[in-house]
Amino acid sequence: MNDAVPGTPPAGGPAHEPHDGALGSRLNWLRAAVLGANDGIVSTAGLVVGVAGATTDRAALLTAGLAGLLAGSMSMAAGEYVSVSTQRDSERAALALERRELTEQPEAELAELTELLQRRGLTRQVARDAAVQLTERDALRAHAQVELGIDPDALTNPWHAAAASFLAFTVGALLPLLAIVLPPAGRRLPVTVLSVLAALVVTGWSGARLGAAAPGRAVLRNVAGGALAMGVTYAAGALLGAAGA
């Protein structure tokens, strides 16, 4: 006899896992934050290490680092705002079109929803019954989610996306900036390089785990890319510094 309370998992059974759209949205935001921080680390590190190849002046390093941080964070925020605004406008236009079609040709839209549900593995009759019930409950939501893959109540806010990109880039950029200006002159470069490589290990691992991928290759690519960027910019800075001496 099963005495379990309805709606609760059986004893010894798997715990409830939140496989909902909100979880997927949160994971997407986390991945975007990790990538934004990674961009801030690599671009700012390349900039300050390049300047360090030409000069040891702390003021010059701080000026270059701050300029790179502000320019990069503003560029990321503006780009994300434009991108998400375009996506949101497209989603709103698609919803408006769907709303008009539901008003003008409801039977055709019901048949379309039935066909879409059939393609997902339901029999004709079950798909028809489900389409009728979904339409009676909220026709626009049903078509938006099944046909368009859009949640009408969860359209991405471009201001939120821009702020998140700005913050993520800034947090990432602060690491190489502080690492290059705080230590004594003789230790700035090794401290910066080691700090940046360690941070890239963390962001590479985090991005891979959030994407359910093996972290080994992601970490290696991340570290190799960052090391290459710093090496190239340092060599360029050293050459320019020598030429201007």
Main sheet characteristics: none
Could you tell me the radius of gyration in angstroms?
26 Å
Question: Approximately how much helix is present in the residues?
Answer: over 70%
Tally of contiguous helical segments: 7
The span between the termini is 88 Å
How many DSSP-defined strands? Answer: 0
Q: What's the mean pLDDT score?
A: 85
Strand proportion, as a percent range, falls in under 5%
Explained architecture:
There is one protein chain. The protein has 245 residues and is an all-alpha fold. The protein has one domain (22-244). The protein is 80% helix and 0% strand. It has helices at 21-54, 58-104, 106-119, 124-148, 158-181, 188-210, 215-244. Helix 1 runs antiparallel to helix 2 (58-104). The longest helix is centred in the first third of the chain and has 47 residues, at 58-104. It is elongated, with a radius of gyration of 26 Å. Mean pLDDT is 85; it is low at 1-20.
Element layout with pairings:
Blueprint (H helix, E strand, L loop, with lengths): L20 H34 L3 H47 L1 H14 L4 H25 L9 H24 L6 H23 L4 H30 L1
In short:
By secondary structure, this protein is mostly helical. The protein is built from 7 helices and no strands. The chain has helices at 21-54, 58-104, 106-119, 124-148, 158-181, 188-210, 215-244.
